[in-house]
């Protein structure tokens, strides 16, 4: 059960314990993290699960594939560290990872 820290744009912190194998989006929804709407249920088709993951964690989270990248092209406030949280499976090694939310969420 790795601990994951979700941080709102305003700096509000929510630390949760996530289940390995869930996606970051599923962990956020199960823990009622505000701003992760996940309208498409994880099908990589809505971008309402948009988050920022510091590049220092990219070895753990990987990088967006073509489908995720093309959906990110339609998201607001995209940054180089943007990801769709439904496309990131949680692993034990993600203990302590910080996930930031865009201002509009
Ligand atoms: S939940 Fe829709 S793209 Fe992630």
Automatic annotation (TrEMBL):
Entry-linked Gene3D superfamilies: 3.10.20.30
Domain (2Fe-2S ferredoxin-type) ranges: 2-105
Membrane-spanning intervals of the chain: none
Pfam families, per the entry: Fer2 (PF00111)
Listed GO MF terms: 2 iron, 2 sulfur cluster binding; electron transfer activity; metal ion binding
Alphabetical UniProt keywords: 2Fe-2S, Iron, Iron-sulfur, Metal-binding
UniProt keyword annotation of Iron present: yes
Keyword match Transport: no
InterPro entries: 2Fe-2S_ferredoxin-like_sf, 2Fe-2S_ferredoxin-type, Adrenodoxin-like, Adrenodoxin_Fe-S_BS, Beta-grasp_dom_sf
Biological processes, Gene Ontology terms: P450-containing electron transport chain
Cofactor: [2Fe-2S] cluster
PANTHER family registered for this protein in UniProt: 2FE-2S FERREDOXIN-TYPE DOMAIN-CONTAINING PROTEIN, FERREDOXIN/ADRENODOXIN
Family, similarity comment: Belongs to the adrenodoxin/putidaredoxin family.
Protein name stated in the entry: 2Fe-2S ferredoxin
Species this protein is from: Litorimonas taeanensis
Lineage, opening ranks: Bacteria, Pseudomonadati, Pseudomonadota, Alphaproteobacteria, Maricaulales
């Amino acid at each position: 059960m790795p601990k994951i820290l979700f941080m709102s744009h305003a700096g509000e912190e929510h630390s949760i314990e996530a289940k390995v194998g869930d996606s970051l989006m599923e962990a956020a929804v199960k823990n009622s993290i505000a701003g992760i709407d996940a309208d498409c249920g994880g099908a990589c088709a809505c971008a309402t699960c948009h988050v920022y993951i510091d590049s220092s964690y990219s070895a753990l989270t990987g990088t967006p594939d073509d489908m995720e990248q093309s959906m990110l092209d339609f998201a607001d406030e995209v940054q180089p560290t943007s990801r769709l949280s439904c496309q990131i499976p949680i692993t034990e090694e993600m203990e302590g990872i910080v996930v930031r939310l865009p201002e509009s969420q």
